[in-house]
């Protein structure tokens, strides 16, 4: 009995001691609660710290699940909750509420949110435990949030940046086009549906799919397909279909169409594969993205950043919406090119749809004024989603309008001869006034060359053949002999000084010009061939135009530029030839037009100087016997630009003079403006 009484007394004493332990202060409880809040431990906050009244008003899902979902959906992170400490001599009365100013900061997908509120703690008994408990409501999630309110996100789409030419003419802009569609109550004829499907290049099933969407009403316009504003022929066909019509809508517009097609490129719908690749960059399945050309290259600059708002829609009939966080949309950049769109259009049209490429540069600044690939596609057509039939038509076109020729490299033929001459003059092995005795149509150094002989087109060239005569008659033998005279090493290093074998410093990726596949010349025969632009030599058309700059700048070649905000006249290569030698070559190239075989360029209105070139394609490079014609030229009186043009397969059109005729139209049109 005594032992049992001792145990009871001991237990009673422990209870007494427990009752004498000081309770946690409201500040300590709040500090613990805020610790869980900063760690997003909502379950612990609800179960251990909320007072009874709060739990009766808000079930666990209203507190725990809702906050977890909001934090996920709104990408809330960096939550930082603090409180204002009370004075040190604060005495807490358990009969009265304890209030603390609480500061809440967080980052969201729409920007930061920050607010301050008073948080009240009440001294209560909960589950046989007396302590301080938190009084809570939804305004501790967001200050303006009340019971029954909805939280939603609103996106504001950024405007895509536009691409303009040097004169601020539109190349790729946010313009308008047309939605072709029908009003169901006026479109009941099955034959009309088939006719519209044929006109638009879509299936009847796809039209039915559009008409069967849940929102469609009998008297509402239903869009079926989009049509570019300049496609007037198709719009006329649409008007002829009973019940079909069209309405203007916002749309990306490419006013210069094919003339700038390969340069501008186009935008198109986001594919599932591309969206997966770019999933961390804020794209959505409904976005349009650059697919080709500058639209693709400049995607990051053009796309802009969509704006976001986090809104609270208040309960009640008014439906008031409060913005609690907002990141305004940031429109894409307007990019201004050095391109002269009208000169580009003139050049494209002058080529008359022939397969080829052209480039023009300002010899004083390096600015790229023209970059043409012909023929081309219309980016307006591609941007809207090209039909299978139309894609097949373009793909099977023997002129290959889908191939971007200004990005490739080609054997330059005789257009390289002025460069060969410049290298020889600077090396001291070529004296312009000293003539060579050249007889016959072919030549070889000696019998060690076997069957290989250098052939020239004009054996009637008068002897002795000096540099001027060699340029006028485009004499292959003269330049082959000059290359042999200067030697392999001097010629190769000279070409390298003109930029052969290195990456072209340009905003777009262009195939580099090469001396040969290996970058060296393995034989005297290859050295001879390369001196007049054959062998394995390849040049990019823009680089070829740039290589003629030193003849007008007395030895300097500038980096080719594409954007107006780039520093002008950035030196790429300098000291390539003396002013005296440059003048000799300018005179020779004027004589090529006046006295030589570029008579189509001997204009009455423009004193053109330049050099023609013909390159025969062999082996895997192309069909045996096919010849590409070149002309690189400038206005000798007013050299505002150097134009390099190449036309494929000119063997049945009179040779490279055929190309000179096209180029001359460009100069004459420019002069007439």
From TrEMBL:
Species of the source: Planococcus faecalis
Family affiliation: Belongs to the transpeptidase family.
Region forming the signal peptide: 1-24
UniProt domain Penicillin-binding protein dimerisation: residue ranges: 157-313
One Pfam family recorded for the sequence: MecA_N
Subcellular location(s) of the protein: Membrane
Residues of the NTF2-like N-terminal transpeptidase domain: 25-148
Keywords: Membrane, Signal
Keyword Cell inner membrane in annotation: no
Protein name in UniProt: Peptidoglycan glycosyltransferase
SUPFAM superfamilies in UniProt: beta-lactamase/transpeptidase-like, NTF2-like, Penicillin binding protein dimerisation domain
Domain Penicillin-binding protein transpeptidase stretches: 357-666
Main localization category: membrane
Domain of life: Bacteria
């Amino acid at each position: 009995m005594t032992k049992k009484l001792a145990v009871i007394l001991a237990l009673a004493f422990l209870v007494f001691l427990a009752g004498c332990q000081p309770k946690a202060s409201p500040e300590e409880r709040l500090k613990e609660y805020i610790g869980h809040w900063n760690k997003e431990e909502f379950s612990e906050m609800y179960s251990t710290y909320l007072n009874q009244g709060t739990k009766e008003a808000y079930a666990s899902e209203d507190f725990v699940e809702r906050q977890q979902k909001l934090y996920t959906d709104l990408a809330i992170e960096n939550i930082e909750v603090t409180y204002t400490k009370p004075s040190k001599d604060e005495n807490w009365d358990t009969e009265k509420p304890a209030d603390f100013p609480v500061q809440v900061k967080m980052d969201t997908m729409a920007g930061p949110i920050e607010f301050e509120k008073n948080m009240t703690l009440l001294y209560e008994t909960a589950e046989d435990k007396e302590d301080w408990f938190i009084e809570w409501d939804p305004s501790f999630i967001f200050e303006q949030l009340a019971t029954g309110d909805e939280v939603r996100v609103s996106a504001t789409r950024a405007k895509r940046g536009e691409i303009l030419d040097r004169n601020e003419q539109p190349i790729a802009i946010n313009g308008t086009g047309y939605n072709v569609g029908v009003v169901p109550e006026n479109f009941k004829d099955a034959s009309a549906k088939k006719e519209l499907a044929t006109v638009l290049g879509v299936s009847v099933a796809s039209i039915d799919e559009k008409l069967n969407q849940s929102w469609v009403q009998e008297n509402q316009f239903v869009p079926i397909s989009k049509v570019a504003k300049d496609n007037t022929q198709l719009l006329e066909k649409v008007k002829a279909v009973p019940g079909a019509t069209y309405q203007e809508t916002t749309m990306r517009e490419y006013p210069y169409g094919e003339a700038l097609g390969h340069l501008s490129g186009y935008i198109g719908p986001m594919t599932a594969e591309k969206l997966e690749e770019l999933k961390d960059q804020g794209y959505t399945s409904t976005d349009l993205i650059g697919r080709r050309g500058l639209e693709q290259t400049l995607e990051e600059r053009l796309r802009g950043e969509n704006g976001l708002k986090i809104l609270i829609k208040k309960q009640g009939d008014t439906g008031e919406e409060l913005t609690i966080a907002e990141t305004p949309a940031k429109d894409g950049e307007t990019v201004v090119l050095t391109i002269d769109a009208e000169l580009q259009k003139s050049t494209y049209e002058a080529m008359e749809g022939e397969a080829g490429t052209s480039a023009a540069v300002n010899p004083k600044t390096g600015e790229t004024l023209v970059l043409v690939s012909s023929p081309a596609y219309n980016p307006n057509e591609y941007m809207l989603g090209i039909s299978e039939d139309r894609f097949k038509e373009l793909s099977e076109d023997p002129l290959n309008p889908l191939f971007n020729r200004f990005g490739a490299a080609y054997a330059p033929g005789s257009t390289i001869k002025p460069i060969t001459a410049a290298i020889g003059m600077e090396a001291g092995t070529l004296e312009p006034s000293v003539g060579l005795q050249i007889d016959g149509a072919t030549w070889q150094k000696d019998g060690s060359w076997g069957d290989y002989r250098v052939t020239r087109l004009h054996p009637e060239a008068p002897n002795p053949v000096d540099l001027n005569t060699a340029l006028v008659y485009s004499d292959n033998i003269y330049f082959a002999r000059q290359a042999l005279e200067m030697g392999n090493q001097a010629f190769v290093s000279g070409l390298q000084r003109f930029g052969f074998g290195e990456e072209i410093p340009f905003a777009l990726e262009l195939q580099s010009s090469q001396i040969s596949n290996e970058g060296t010349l393995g034989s005297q025969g290859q050295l001879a061939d390369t001196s007049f632009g054959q062998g394995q030599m390849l040049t990019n058309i823009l680089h070829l135009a740039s290589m003629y700059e030193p003849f007008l700048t007395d030895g300097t070649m500038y980096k080719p530029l594409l954007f107006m905000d780039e520093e002008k006249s950035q030196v790429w290569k300098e000291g390539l030839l003396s002013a005296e030698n440059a003048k000799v070559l300018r005179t020779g190239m004027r004589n090529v037009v006046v006295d030589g075989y570029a008579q189509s360029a001997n204009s009455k209105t423009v004193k053109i100087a330049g050099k023609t070139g013909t390159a025969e394609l062999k082996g895997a490079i192309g069909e045996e016997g096919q010849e590409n014609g070149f002309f690189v030229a400038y206005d000798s009186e007013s050299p505002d630009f150097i134009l390099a043009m190449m036309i494929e397969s000119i063997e049945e059109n009179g040779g490279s003079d055929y190309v000179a005729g096209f180029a001359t139209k460009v100069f004459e049109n420019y002069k007439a403006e």
